[in-house]
Amino acid sequence: MAQVALRNIVKTFDRTPAVRGINLDIPDREFIVLVGPSGCGKSTTLRMIAGLEEATSGEIFIGDQLVNDVPPKDRDIAMVFQNYALYPGGQRQRVAMGRAIVRNPKVFLFDEPLSNLDAKLRVQMRTEIKKIHQQVTTTTVYVTHDQVEAMTLADRVVIMNAGRIDQIGTPHEVYHTPKTQFVAGFIGSPTMNMLPCRLVENGNGLTVRLSDWLSFPVPPSRVDRYRPQVGSELTFGLRPEHIIEWRGDVPPGAAAFEARLDVVEPMGMETMVYFIVDGVEVCGRVNPASAGRVGESMRLVADLNQMHLIDPRTELVV
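Above: the chain's sequence. Below: its structure in token form.
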């Protein structure tokens, strides 16, 4: 077992950059997941660690050894690919993982191993991979475009965007404290609500103005942090689970409001309700027993302790 380190790794294909100078330290025994949309550079990064692609520049270490010029067979890694020409469904991935484990390598590499499985098998295999790592504790680098896999499997998540690393953190960190608009929008399903807004003074406090009919007070704990942004055009972010039905009271840091329902989606244990704010569709998650009907006005509560403000010029969370 060994740590993996990437130093200023760049990869270009015919002058087109695929990986743009990333740095990453993966401690011994960590399960780290590279996640991002298609074309973000995550599989290329994995293939460079494996030696299946040559880095254009930068250094790759496995343990204390610089492996840029070491053939794949001599890197002491085991790789599980998306496709295997053995057995149907999840069986071939079980065989692939079994082959990898018996080799007792320094590092396991997984390249979207579950993407071709149906939803039920994917959940089952995800659980098996988690159990295997808990027992074997070999350093693991796992690539996926599926944020659910990333959040459930990873010790830390590496979120990649256009060949760069946008954020590295635990699943809790990247979900609750995203650093960029891309991370805020990529992690979470349904995606985070994002609306243009203006931050204005309101006595000793601040208000987020979303439209002519909807404004939210900034919680006192956020006032000092946001005050330098007064007057700025910003992006307001709030996850659907932080917009819920009104339950007779309004907790500290939250605000009640009414909205006309545009779409109602029953999901069993919860219902998604959609409404329009200044031309932008907004989603909330409510108790099915409380959900109104399309065209009706519903009283909702927004938990502003969970809000994010994003500078649209830099796309950074302020």
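The helical segments are 42-50, 91-102, 119-136, 147-153, 171-176, 181-186, 220-226.
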